[in-house]
Write a structure and sequence with these properties.
The structure holds 2 protein chains of 2 kinds.
Chain A (H helix, E strand, L loop, with lengths): L2 E5 L2 E4 L5 E8 L5 E8 L3 E10 L2 E4 L5 E7 L2 E6 L8 E8 L7 E3 L3 E5 L1
Parallel strand pairs in A: 2-11
Antiparallel strand pairs in A: 1-3, 3-8, 4-5, 4-9, 5-6, 7-8, 9-10, 9-11
Chain B lengths: L3 E3 L4 E4 L4 E7 L6 E7 L6 E7 L2 E5 L2 E6 L4 E6 L8 E8 L11 E2 L3 E6 L1
Classes of the chains: A mainly beta, B mainly beta.
């Protein structure tokens, strides 16, 4: 069966510090991968998605970036965090054969102070 | 008009009640419909998945899709305190042949089932 991991689970960072969140998927090959941010009362905001190694599509202009160095690894980064980057970050994967259904990881709660 | 509308609630019901959760949408190309359940401080988990119109039942949960009205519902029978969570609807046009791999989500309805 497929499993998705995210770490860390919780992170408190000062404004201006760098960020690296990691997501890995097990039990599937060539998944589509997604990064979302969920802020209170604002729903899920798609940040990036990737259909293959090195292929990243950005949905929202911001100071975040994403990379996919391996088939089942997706990384969310920032060089300098802003207060507005605080939120709950979710990684998800999908496979076309199951009709776009996405499966989410446990999330990383980021607080920027 | 937003692409997907979902009443945020909160919705509070007694244990054993039948719960109805709903979403409306504007994009007639949507054909894949999902319901996710999200417990506090956890990632969303897939609850129900339907393709096109009709009903799908899984235990105490029933998902309904009415494409003519652009309206989807999730019914929970014999609701339990463990059903207390935020429920998110999501949908897609399934156009992965192009560049669209995205789901469109509702903002979620917060449900509390009181013992």
């Amino acid at each position: 069966s497929q499993t998705i991991h995210q770490w860390p689970a919780t992170l408190v960072q000062p404004v201006g510090s760098p960020l690296s969140l990691e997501c890995t998927v097990e039990g599937t090959s060539n998944p589509n991968l997604y990064w979302y941010r969920q802020a209170a009362g604002r729903g899920l905001q798609l940040l990036f998605y990737s259909v293959g190694i090195g292929q990243i599509s950005s949905e929202v202009p911001q100071n975040l970036s994403a990379s996919r160095p391996q088939d089942r690894q997706f990384i969310l980064s920032s060089k300098k965090l802003l207060l507005s980057d605080s939120g709950f970050y979710l990684c998800a994967w999908s496979v076309w054969e199951v009709g776009e259904t996405q499966y989410f990881g446990p999330g990383t709660r980021l607080l920027v102070l | 008009q937003k692409e997907v509308e979902q009443d945020p609630g909160p919705l509070s019901v007694p244990e054993g009640a039948i719960v109805s959760l709903n979403c409306t949408y504007s994009n007639s190309a949507f054909q894949y419909f999902m319901w996710y359940r999200q417990y506090s401080r956890k990632g969303p988990e897939l609850l129900m998945y339907t393709y096109s119109s009709g009903n799908k039942e899984d235990g105490r949960f029933t998902a309904q899709v009415d494409k003519s009205s652009k309206y989807i519902s999730l019914f929970i029978r014999d609701s339990q305190p463990s059903d207390s969570a935020t429920y998110l609807c999501a949908m897609s046009d399934g156009n992965s042949g192009g560049s669209n791999y995205k789901l469109t989500f509702g903002k979620g309805t917060l449900l509390t089932v009181n013992p």
